[in-house]
Amino acid sequence: MGRNDSILLVEDSDSLAAVYQAYLADEPAQLTRVASGEAAIRAMTDNPPSVLLLDLKLPDMSGLDVLQWLNGQRFEPVVIMITAHGSIDVAVDAMRLGAIDFLEKPFDGARLHVTVRNAMKLSRLQNLVEGYEADSARSSFQGFIGGSLVMQQVYKMIEAVAPSKATVFITGESGTGKEVCAEAIHKQGPRANKPFIALNCGAIPKELMESEIFGHVKGAFTGAQRERKGAASLADGGTLFLDEIGEMDMDLQTKLLRFVQTGRFQRVGGSAEETVDVRFLCATNRDPWQEVQAGRFREDLYYRLYVVPIHLPPLRDRGQDVLAVGQMLLNQYAKDEGKKFRRFGHDVKLVLSRYQWPGNVRELQNVVRNICVLNDGEQVTVEHLPQNLCAQLDELLPERELSGELEFEIEQTPEFVIEEQPQGFVRPIQALWLTERQAIEQAIDHCDGNIPKAAELLEVSPSTIYRKKQSWEQME
């Protein structure tokens, strides 16, 4: 391990913390221990660790909440979750939020040593990569929020193309941020101090589209009571962004092609030719080549515009970016609406992560705005979600449904107790493992063979019961 390696242990039990610290005493790394999630956040803010040993159950918040907070930070420690309440679902959630390993109590010193050393190796490898690519872990860029790999590639593409005058063709589903991308290219380039003019070709009637782009002279058509500049003139020296360009009428595409080739145009109803210096950016939510093949988009215009393509990924393919974007929106909308919301509850984070977001970031904006307008509180719960998400909770949160069924059935089941013995009866002393086995088997029989239900009654994880049953079978 390197001299700068550091480990942050987040464990609220003093006795367990002492055991783990003793296990790691010989490791050449600085070990710091805190006892709460808030203390962990403060410690990482002041001095980001190489490795984070994070207990799932903390007195003030869940370890998953700490993991979620980490997703919005510029530093990325290697995270190992520790819990006595292990389950596949929790492990999957922890891995989804960025943990690389999962230790279930109790574990011995050898297991901890191997896990921590592997984490240290991974941390040093990440630092080497970051040394070569200093900006690889950006969590935001020019209006975009998110640090996923696919977005890092978008950021690099924007930086590479921005200094050029080459035409950029931005593709992506509706709501993925195509105009944000166009503005980022403009702001990163040499025209940043010049106008950025955006025109949505799908929102303007086709009979008015030519005037919107090129402007018109007085009397050019009914209602043209004065001369008017179009987007081409307004963008002179700067950038003209034509959004949803696939919606443009074929006849107008011909005029646009000449404008792109020469920089010259005529206003509607005019005869004088104007020349401007414009950087062209365009976007569509369709496949432009399929539009060419379908006869809806001119092939020569396609080749003129499709110089540098940038594809924006849908939100469902951006991993935990959805939570980072959601948190930013929650902070903004809560402030706008005068509400107290500060964070999403654990179940809500799972819903946001698992939902497919067909409307992408725009749909997420609507969901968070709906929550802030209609509700209040410090934490967003599933009860605050709008109807379209609540209707899918059984699919998005199947473990919640199972948990609810167990709680109901347990409440309806007579209390599980060890049978009372007559006064004066002395139970024979037997091995502890045998007493434990009898208690587990009695609980399983009581629950008609339902091990998850038995584990709930015994307050252990189902995996513990399965593991013990396997060890008994090997002894027989």
From TrEMBL:
Gene3D superfamilies: 1.10.8.60, 3.40.50.2300, Homeodomain-like (1.10.10.60), P-loop containing nucleotide triphosphate hydrolases (3.40.50.300). The modification 4-aspartylphosphate is found at D55. GO terms for biological process: phosphorelay signal transduction system; regulation of DNA-templated transcription. CDD domains: AAA (cd00009), REC_NtrC1-like (cd17572). The keyword Transcription regulation applies. It comes from the Bacteria. Keywords: ATP-binding, DNA-binding, Nucleotide-binding, Phosphoprotein, Transcription, Transcription regulation, Two-component regulatory system. PROSITE patterns: RESPONSE_REGULATORY (PS50110), SIGMA54_INTERACT_2 (PS00676), SIGMA54_INTERACT_3 (PS00688), SIGMA54_INTERACT_4 (PS50045). Coiled coil: none annotated. Residues 144-373 form the Sigma-54 factor interaction domain. Residues 6-120 form the Response regulatory domain. One of its GO terms (molecular function) is sequence-specific DNA binding. InterPro entries: AAA+_ATPase (IPR003593), AAA_lid_NorR (IPR058031), CheY-like_superfamily (IPR011006), Homeodomain-like_sf (IPR009057), HTH_Fis (IPR002197), P-loop_NTPase (IPR027417), Sig_transdc_resp-reg_receiver (IPR001789), Sigma_54_int (IPR002078). PANTHER family: PTS-DEPENDENT DIHYDROXYACETONE KINASE OPERON REGULATORY PROTEIN-RELATED (PTHR32071:SF117), TRANSCRIPTIONAL REGULATORY PROTEIN (PTHR32071). This is Sigma-54-dependent Fis family transcriptional regulator.
